[in-house]
Specification:
Number of helices: 2
CATH architecture of the largest domain: Beta Barrel
InterPro entries: Secre_tail (IPR026444)
Pfam family, one: Por_Secre_tail
Order of helices and strands: HEEEEEEEEEEEEEEEEEEHEEEEEEE
Largest sheet: 18 strands, antiparallel, barrel
Keywords: Signal
Mean pLDDT: 81
Protein name: T9SS type A sorting domain-containing protein
Length: about 375
């Protein structure tokens, strides 16, 4: 399961004139690479993702495992996301989870409700409520557990930003119902290089009045400021010990081509291959080659600040959309170049759509 989640989190899209068609994940076993699973992506006529088909390799053929589909509002924003599992005994898909999205007046994500279907009707499971500051930066995320018609607060995440608009402290708290207060749970601190790229981050966990170090995440970059390696260190016996790392390779367009995941042999310096994610791309639906190439978005992958250049003159609408098709950021501008602070967004795949008159330009990017 850990390998499968790694595959999901390490998704990156290809050249700006291309969109992701599939991710094939392999595991290293008995001195050779073996197929494990893959995800096939489908898009609607406007280029929005609407279907993700998860399949597993049984040694001879690909077998159905799970579907993720979504319905959209008339403006293209996602209304619901629906998850189904394949019934290997009786055949066919059975729904087990769905998400309902809500938006504020600026079409920023206002709340998310997750419902589960164990053996009967849909039951509310969790809810997330998003709050933003006056500048549009995400400030708080409140999570509640569903209990019939009631919601019970469980956790809160607070974001704190540096002078460059990059979040450098993230604090998580749990709701103490007995004392009606928030109890600190954990926090993360990030540090940046001279040009604003994160180079490492610490995560701490609260144990009473003490702060204990939990892990350390380190990034290194190549000459083009693209992530070359990220490495996780686990705090064991009073010292940091490297546990896992990812090695990124890029194609000629500086888009992720593959990601190699390795684990460190315990108490040793030997890195062992664990899994390999391979990406395949195709043309973006609804975009001509000229329109797509005219848009320059960098860095890609990105951490906090995203630069957009090559936009057409005049008034235009810029939309940032996640891999579920949910609009997470929208801005109107007449500038031909723009800098967006998006460090609060979770890691994953995003699409940029720039609408100017009857023309649409697009690019696909990955957030680390």
């Amino acid at each position: 399961m850990r390998t499968f989640l790694f595959c999901l989190l390490s998704m990156g899209l290809g050249a700006q004139s291309q969109q992701l068609l599939s991710i094939t994940n392999k595991n290293f076993s008995n001195s050779s690479w073996k197929f494990n699973n893959r995800i096939l992506f489908s898009y609607d006529a406007n280029g929005y993702p609407y279907l993700e088909d998860y399949e597993a390799w049984n040694g001879m053929v690909w077998e159905n495992r799970q579907l993720k589909t979504q319905s959209n509002h008339s403006n293209g924003l996602v209304d619901t996301v629906y998850y189904e599992r394949w019934d290997q005994i009786n055949g066919g898909y059975t729904g087990f989870s769905k998400e309902q999205n809500y938006y504020n007046g600026n079409w920023e994500k206002d709340s998310l409700i997750v419902m589960q279907n164990i053996s009967g009707p849909w039951i509310k499971d969790t809810r997330k409520v998003f709050q933003y500051d006056a500048g549009g930066l995400l400030e708080h995320v409140f999570t509640s557990d569903g209990d019939g018609a009631d919601w019970k607060l469980t956790t809160k995440t607070d974001y704190y930003y540096n002078t460059n608009g990059q979040w450098d402290i993230l604090r998580r708290s749990e709701w103490d119902s007995a004392n009606a207060t928030w109890a600190p749970k954990s926090e993360m601190h990030r540090y940046f290089d001279a040009i604003g790229n994160p180079i490492f981050e610490y995560e701490f966990i609260h144990r009473g009045s003490n702060l204990d170090t939990l892990r350390w995440h380190e990034y290194t970059y190549n000459s083009q400021a693209l992530v070359q390696e990220d490495r996780y260190y686990i705090f064991i016996a009073g010292a940091f010990n490297p546990g896992t790392r990812r090695l990124f390779s890029y194609n000629a367009n500086n888009r992720i081509d593959s990601v190699l995941h390795q684990v460190l042999k315990y108490n040793d310096t030997l890195w062992l291959d664990n899994s390999l994610a391979i990406y395949r791309y195709g043309p973006i639906v609804g975009l001509t080659e000229l329109e797509s190439k005219s848009l320059h978005v960098y860095p890609n992958p990105w951490h906090d600040i995203l630069n957009i250049e090559g936009m057409a003159k005049g008034e235009k609408l810029i939309q940032i959309i996640n891999s579920s098709g949910v609009l997470v950021k929208q801005k109107s501008t007449d500038a031909e170049e723009l800098q967006l602070r998006l460090g609060h967004l979770p890691a994953g795949v995003y699409s940029i759509r720039v609408q100017a008159g009857g023309h649409i330009s697009g690019a696909s990017i990955i957030k680390l």
